[in-house]
Amino acid sequence: MASSKRQLSSGWQTTRTRIWHRDNGRCQGPYCQHRLFYSLPLNEAQIDHILERSKGGTDADGNLRTLCRRCHCLRASIAHQGMIAAALRDGLIPSDWRSLVWED
Ligand SMILES: [Zn+2]
Question: What's the 62 CA to ligand 1 centre distance in angstroms?
Fold first, then answer.
């Protein structure tokens, strides 16, 4: 998972927990096969910025959503490209992952 100083702060942990509860622990990816059936444990859930921070997105709840790792790394975002290599290595996504990339 991409890390940053912000994500290590206790404030972010509080936010992360709140968003996960709001989303009932479910991935909000529009094409996620897990979306309706599967609640992610908090330690596996990833919190995505809908409007990327590099584009002015904030940490406000309305800009955050729960995603599974697979949906998170397959979201069309330059900020997530670093996640692809690790996901390939772990077998989380197939070698033709480019066809699975999604956008809002
Ligand atoms: Zn998902």
Answer: 19
Alpha carbon distance 59, 96 (integer Å): 32
Residue type, 2: A
Domain assignment present for residue 90? The answer is yes
Residue 40 lies in a domain: yes
How many angstroms does the Cα of residue 67 sit away from the middle of ligand 1?
A: 5
pLDDT digits (tens, 9 = 90+) for 77-93: 766 778 898 999 999 99
> What CATH number is given to the structural domain containing 94?
3.40.1800
Distance 28 CA to ligand 1 centre (A): 6
Q: What is the pLDDT of residue 71?
A: 93
Rounded distance from Cα 77 to ligand 1 centre (Å): 15
Decide if pLDDT at 3 tops 50. no
Answer whether residue 1 is part of any domain. Answer: no
